[in-house]
Amino acid sequence: MNIEAAIRAYRPYNIQEEKDKETILSFLERYEDAFLRENELAHMTASAWVLNKEKTKVLMAYHRIYDSWAWLGGHCDGERDCLQVAVKEVREESGVRNVVPVAEDIFSLEVLSVDSHYKRGKYVPTHLHLNVTYLLQADEEEVLRAKEDENTGVAWFGLDEAVEKSNEKWFRENIYAKLNKKLRETYEID
Fold first, then answer.
1. What is the pLDDT, as a whole number, of residue 65?
2. Residue-wise over 18-47: b if at least 16 C-beta within 10 A, else e?
3. The pTM of the whole model exceeds 0.85
């Protein structure tokens, strides 16, 4: 199933996802370059809520730009297989090689605002990330390695601890807490 069809078929978990789904689909219909970061208004990204085998821990990276512990993920850069992007980004940003989808379905949708910043000496204007999130699983025994140009550390945290570690209030309260709540409901985790 292509990503547009997968997004259309996705059943929003809450009002945030319902509204963000509408926004993402509308943008994809209007902009041929929605999968390229050259579209400075908005572009597609893929993120992962990476769990250990027992689904008791989340893998996060300390992101340089946001100065916060954050989920893993990145820009699609022309790739329309968002699941593949999420897996690739987890490998690149954490050093973990053994990472697989818990399920191949979309786990969450978000439209995320990104404040202007400098990356590799280049100014990046404020824009939106039209984000597709997947639930992935990795081997917590693997050696972790930071991707020095993007993060300063990678670590496993308990589910609730992962939420608390973020310095970004919106992510903590509306994204990471939602992901954990949905995870607990879907997989009946305490």
1. 87
2. eebbeebbebbeebeebbbbebeebbbbbb
3. yes
